[in-house]
Amino acid sequence: MIEFRSVSYAFDDISVLEDVSLAIADGEFVVLAGANGSGKTTLLRHCNGLLEPDSGTVLVNETPVSDDLIAARSSVGMVFQHPRDQFVAATIGADVAFGPENLGLAREEIDRRVGESLEAVNMAGRDDERIDQLSGGEQSRVAIAGALAMEPTHLVLDEPFTGLDDPARRSVLSRLESLAADGTGILLATHDLRDVVGIADRIVAMRDGRVVVDDSPEDALEDLARLEVRVPDT
Ligand SMILES: Nc1ncnc2c1ncn2[C@@H]1O[C@H](COP(=O)(O)OP(=O)(O)OP(=O)(O)O)[C@@H](O)[C@H]1O
To answer: Which residues line ligand 1 (CB under 6 A)?
Structure first.
């Protein structure tokens, strides 16, 4: 479980998170919605200690993140908004393999994870291609594959669908859905709720650094329209 307990955070005295309390249980698929600047990225960056709360606590599997950064970082897979900053190798296969290699896994297991993760993002068989020659959407898919290959107990994704075409988006979503069904807790930030409403267990919406909606997708939709968060046409 990832748990935010009364988390507040300010950049240079400007409050960005105010008293945020939120829990993502194992196997739960939670969508974090909110307009640009509402605080989603700032909140997510607390999940693995990239930012620390000014007050309040963030816990991963009941341990405060600040007490055990290594445990938090190995339990929570993060996919950031700008994947270019996340790559460590020149080719797709080497980059996705990097995390599992650092876990000291056997070659066979590494190869299995890389293969499955690339398949989940519709990039199977492209291991040898150079990352710097990929489009932005393809780079996003490699970043997602890198997080999947770690098989973390939680996945936190910040606007992962930017630049992805429909088949890639559907493939990633279906993979996330099956991971959640198998017990992985998922926290997915997006300002675009197409596709995710039918899959999410809960939608949490932020405005001005506060959680203003935390409900089932059906019940959340009405409030979301009021908050100017994009909602599906249906
Ligand atoms: N490093 C920083 N220094 C100062 N202010 C920042 C910094 N990062 C974010 N902010 C401010 O914090 C607020 C929340 O930003 P954040 O990126 O968390 O929002 P968001 O909901 O993720 O928006 P977006 O969808 O545009 O990414 C914004 O007003 C932003 O300008």
So the answer is: 11-12, 16, 34, 36-42, 191
